[in-house]
Amino acid sequence: MDRFTIAGVLDDVKLFYGINDTWAGLLQTAFVCSYMVLAPIFGYMGDRFNRKLIVCAGITFWSLTTLAGSVIPKDHFWAFILLRGLVGVGEASYSTIAPTIIADLFTGALRTKMLMVFYFAIPVGSGMGYIIGSSVAKAANQWQWALRVTPGLGILSVVLTLFVLREPKRGAAEGSRITHNTNWSTDLKELLKNKSFMWSTVGFTFVTFVSGALAWWAPLFMNYALRVQLRHPTMDTVALIFGALTCAAGFIGVALGSFVANWYKKYNPRADPLVCAFGLLTCTPFLYLVIVLSRHYEIPTWVCIFLGEVLLCLNWAIVADILLYVVIPTRRSTAEAFQILLSHALGDAASPYIIGTVSDAFKGNRPETSIVQYESLQMALYITTFVAVLAGAAFLVTAFYIEKDRKEAEKVTKGSSESPQSTSTKNLLVNGENGSINEQQISDLT
Length: 446
Known about the structure:
77% of the residues lie in helices and 0% in strands. By secondary structure, the chain is mainly alpha-helical. Helix 1 crosses helix 7 and helix 10 (195-228) runs antiparallel to helix 17 (370-381). The termini are far apart.
């Protein structure tokens, strides 16, 4: 929710601080930059230290910086950007570590279902961010109140995590025999060799580029489009509609993607990346129609937004599941961190700023009338249709390697692989930190 409460009141924020589209896009970029830069640090810690305490510390900091951002005066925009950036600290801790805890509690089809429930939070939380942010700001007649709701929910989640969640042993659900970690450089080398992980990460990077651009700019784009249609909407009304559609589409898309992937696996072991590719390639026409139809038709545009978001959300839980079954348990937090770093550095950290900059470039020196604002942002958003096709292509490539890499990870986890990829992992099983194991363990490994 915190990530997109600002998007629901973006027009008010622009007026309050007197900024253009480029600076407005930079607000989201600042958040995602800190998120992605800190992810590797939390990934390293998540593979080695108590994950529950790391998550709690991160969410507490996240909540406090969100609240602090609501009191920055209009002549200190730099401080507002800084605090929005620091919000990424909390999400870096949570997003990097939480999926690995789920992986250590469940396995197989049940893990996929639990990840589906977890990843409902992304689209549903995003939609709730628009709705709550715009609604609270309207009720209080001050956009800053959009940032004063979620900190309380964050502290509540910290209390529940501390007193309800039990820290599982890494790899417990899979019967892992890996008890010690390799060093971080070795972990990164092994991840770079993992083709399924790397190509799915490339695909997910393109996904975050598209979703980040649309999540940040689509409400404002629809606001401009409706003004061009002479409907005179309010930003809170547009944000409410967009938020409701995003919640519904996210819920349906994540659930449908997980269900179809689980069903299709019975017939094709490459089902996961193929379902991701299908969703991205079929969402592209709807993205194009949104951009084209928005000038003249309101209802068809909202319908296309909904259908496009459903298809775009098919992959969220599936991508996480792919990572968890092609990477061994003691590297998963590092893998999550690597994926977050790459996907956000080149994805939603860049896309809001890029779209805003391209939009300003198309405006040139023309007066900022409704038609100029609409047409410039329209031209910039065409970029997302091309990137969605690239995302689908990356997942098609992933399908070529997924079977081999999944089997390899399973063998290494159970201590029975002799392949080159598992050499360093086998060493960590044999040597450990104390440098010895018994003869029976050696025979089991060989």
